[in-house]
# Entry
Amino acid sequence: MPQVQQDQALVRSQILDAARERFTRYGFGKTTMAEIARDCGMSAANLYRYFENKHDIGAAMTRRCLGEKATALKEVVDNPEYSAPGKIRQFILANLRYTHNEWSSQPHMSELVDAITGARPDLVSQYMAQTRGLLKQIIDEGVARGEFAVEDSRATAESVMAATFLFDYPNMMSLYPLEVFEQKAVMVADLIVHGLMK
# Structure
């Protein structure tokens, strides 16, 4: 990557870090572009060179967060030490732990989730498609190994996502401590695995 692009990527990353800090403390709605620019030590005009508006910053933050989560989930899928049932369990737990660690102690960030969900449904669709694809990969692997008896792995992956929505949605993370969520996730994962196995 050329030096100019590296410099621009670094500035964008610094802007996202500053915006996250402000969104966390004051909320998405009460934060202005001028405040984010000031936190970064730049003019508002300079900030607009990198992001068109606050929703653009929120979308970039969301993409970064979902990318990190997808990486963590793919590590579970690619781990050869787990059987397919083990991967389902670990996938659900990894999803919960990432979401809980990111969002449970940041109630103001729910404003960002609501704003981006409404303004950028394409990001939500992309994330859901990626998650469904990873789950389908686990299910297909389980079928190939004779561990699962599933006719339609895509539809089954959709069903697993629906059954585990509580552990994936940021705005739910303040409901319980992580330990309670983990207990619930293990019970749901066991139920799902039991339904998938031959």
In short: The domain at 1-51 is CATH 1.10.10.60 (Arc Repressor Mutant, subunit A). The longest helix spans residues 54-78. The radius of gyration is 19 Å. The chain has a mean pLDDT of 93.
